[in-house]
Amino acid sequence: MKWTTENNNGPAVRHSDAHLFAALSIISEKECISRSDLSEELGLGEGSTRNLIKTMRTWKQIDVRQTGIRLSALGRETLDTLPIRFVSISNHEYVRGEYQQGIIIKGRSEDIQNGMKQRDIGIKYGSDGASVFIMRNGSIIFPKDVNVDESDPEFAKEIRSTGISEGDVLIIVGSDSLPTSRIAAAGIGLETI
């Protein structure tokens, strides 16, 4: 999925579609956030954050007031119609990196071969790695064929608590920076749908 367009006028764009998705998700979670807090959450500089906010305002995804930035009705609709969402989950046995971000991709388990493509996308976005889990025939599978319900039932229970459903994919991305983990998870999600 691709949202952004090339910017041939003015300074180079320093944000990606992954930043747009992450920003919408963070604003939704926080309900209202300042520009500086959003900048910190995304790991972007102030100028790039201003540019991102300008893009989201132009697309009517957010409302900006003195009290902070909020999702608009269109922003909420955009976020709700995307088949990806952030979830809170981590496991240092499966994923490297101090900070971890999970993302669920609805109905895409058939698109997953062995998880290497998704890991490589994460690395392209700066993560230390990513692990992929799918729900197939009611079981949590670590591709290609490790049944997590049998090998690690406690973690399988934690995975189920994220709301994963039959045919869904859960990817956990790790790095030494929470913003990097978020952006890499968003990038993997967007490049998988």
In short:
The protein has 193 residues and is an alpha+beta fold. The protein has helices at residues 17-30, 35-42, 46-58, 73-81, 116-124, 148-151, 153-160, 178-192, and strands at residues 62-65, 68-71, 84-87, 99-105, 129-136, 139-142, 146-147, 169-175. The protein has 2 domains: 17-80, Orthogonal Bundle (Arc Repressor Mutant, subunit A), CATH 1.10.10.10; 83-192, 2-Layer Sandwich (Gyrase A, domain 2), CATH 3.30.1360.30.
Distinctive features:
193 residues; Arc Repressor Mutant, subunit A; Gyrase A, domain 2; six-stranded antiparallel sheet; two-stranded antiparallel ribbon; 8 strands; 41% helix
Q: Helical residue percent?
A: 40-55%
Q: Give the low-confidence spans.
A: 2-13
- What is the C-alpha radius of gyration, as a whole number of Å? 17 Å
Count the domains. Answer: 2
Can you write the helix and strand succession as a string?
Answer: HHHEEHEEHEEEHHEH
Widest β-sheet, arrangement of strands: 3-4-8-5-6-7
| CATH class call of the largest domain | Alpha Beta
> Architecture of the largest domain in CATH?
2-Layer Sandwich
- Indicate the overall shape: elongated
Structural class: alpha+beta
What is the average of the pLDDT values?
92
CATH topology of the largest domain: Gyrase A, domain 2
Distance between the termini: 6 Å
